[in-house]
Amino acid sequence: MTSKRVFLLDDHEVVREGIRAVLDAEPDLEVVGEWDTARGAADAILDASPDVAVLDVRLPDGSGIEVLREVRQQNPEIKGLVLTGFQDDKALFAAVVAGASGFVQKQIAIDTLVSSVRLVASGHSMIDPAVVLRLAERNQPAAQEAPGLADLTPTERRVLVLVARGMTNRQIGDELSLAEKTVKNHVTSILSKLRVTRRTQAALLAAKLGVA
């Protein structure tokens, strides 16, 4: 069994060592690096090439969310699980825009943290598109059309609306009488045209632009 590689970014050594101890005790998880500041973190993560980076929101010299944005711009295969010590809708909103796959509070139980790392490392999203839509409506006014939106075909626009509602490819296919593979191809095209890498980012953009 191949272990999932994890990188830790947190300015508190006790927190990093605690998470490392928990994750390294799991046979399918391996911590391959850690860092304590925003400066230099993106380069360190890219060099380590983990499956998932676990990043604290607040760092002494910046934000783990901005680090994640920089990392995913250069290597979108690296997933992001953002940790926070407080409930913050604006941080969640920013994390989604940056391409995070998960957003959890540090107070969660150990087994929940482990399962969250596993899910994100395996390519799953822990962020509910419905929550994304509510955040977009609350925090962002309608925006002007983004580059790429005008390039969407009528069918792609309909697919985007349903993606923004949190529907799966199979559900979208049933709704639009399309094969699931065809829907998958449409979603891939939509993400490319909108210059995003995750469905949640597309859903967020759709809400901001009033498409959804």
How many distinct domains? 2
Instruction: Characterize the overall form.
Output: globular
> For the report, how would you describe the main beta sheet?
5 strands, parallel
Could you say which structural class the secondary elements and strand pairing correspond to? alpha/beta
The first-to-last residue Cα distance is: 41 Å
Query: What would you report as the Rg, rounded to the nearest angstrom?
Result: 18 Å
CATH fold-level assignment of the largest domain: Rossmann fold
CATH class value of the largest domain: Alpha Beta
CATH superfamily of the largest domain: Response regulator
Low-confidence sequence ranges:
141-145
Domain Response regulatory: 5-121
Keywords: DNA-binding, Phosphoprotein, Transcription, Transcription regulation
Modified residues (4-aspartylphosphate): 56
Protein name: Response regulator
Provide a descriptive summary of the structure in words.
The chain is of the alpha/beta class and 212 residues long. The chain folds into two domains: 4-127, Rossmann fold, CATH 3.40.50.2300; 133-209, Arc Repressor Mutant, subunit A (Orthogonal Bundle), CATH 1.10.10. 51% of the residues lie in helices and 15% in strands. The protein is built from ten helices and seven strands. The chain has helices spanning 13-24, 41-48, 64-74, 89-98, 110-121, 129-139, 154-164, 169-176, 180-194, 199-209; strands at residues 4-9, 29-35, 52-56, 58-59, 62-63, 79-84, 102-105. The strands form two sheets. The chain has a five-stranded parallel beta sheet with strand order 2-1-3-6-7, sandwiched between helices. The chain has a two-stranded antiparallel sheet with strand order 4-5. Strand 6 (79-84), helix 4 (89-98) and strand 7 form a beta-alpha-beta unit. The longest helix is centred in the C-terminal third of the chain and has 15 residues, at 180-194. Mean pLDDT is 85; it is low at 141-145.
